[in-house]
Amino acid sequence: MQNSGPSNWKMRFAAQLIVLLYLPVAALAGPADRSISPTNIFAPVSTPAHSILGLSLFVLAVTAAIFVIVFSLLVYCVARFGKRADDDGREPPQVYGSTQVELAWTVIPILIVVVLFMATARVIASIQKAARPANAIQVIAIGHQFWWEYRYPGLKVVTANELHVPVSDPAHPTPTFITLLSADTDHSFWVPRLAGKTDLIPNHPNTMWIDPQQTGLYLGQCAQYCGTQHAKMLLRVYVQSREEFNRWIEEQSQVAHANPAVSEGQRIFKATACINCHGVTGTVADGSFGPDLTHLMSRETIASGAAPNTPENLRL
Q: The whole model's pTM is what?
């Protein structure tokens, strides 16, 4: 029977540690389909999201370097100073008051923190101090429990839960500046592929901007717990070509059209308390507590994106 000595134990420990360190690196380095998730933070399509990703990768690289250095020293100490078969049990020489060591573990962490602080401050300043061009789209986003209200003051359009913005051509940027308000409690506007999280705080307006450079649907969610239905307070941002966006604005600017097929539902809606909460342009319904329903059937979802907009779901 072979004797498993200290050298075999050290080799097994080193092999296990190498495997442990390799697995996450291989997972990050492997091919990934960025189209799998519409909330993929590693596939930004807007300038603020690109800046945040760059900062995140920089911080990850710095912390990964610290991890590798610390664990390399740990492995070296375990292998170099582990108990040996010929160890006589005496206490090794002790070192007290090493000025060089104390300076090293004080100055190096301070420099690391300063570098990370400066990099973060630079990204925050570049995003928050961006100039608003004359052709920028202006949107007011109001967070409610538990839905989103969108107002386009310059275009005289009011809608709910589905935000439409034009694509921004890098050669001719058309950013969208969003004023964030809250009607009740704290919310947080977060669409990972477009920008970072920005809170909506009662009586404290905030602002953010996006300049999406690819058309498509981008999803997000309220990122601040705001009540029992917080998890269903979803975000849907439709980035359209300029022509499609202009067509959508024109359609949303029209008053509601009566349809004989739903005349009975229209009569019930006007005769009950629905009109106290919901508004429908061109009718007696002028409520503002709930979502504006003027162009309800132009939306793909209801309930803040939680359910498809189908006749079956509308009957629930």
A: 0.80
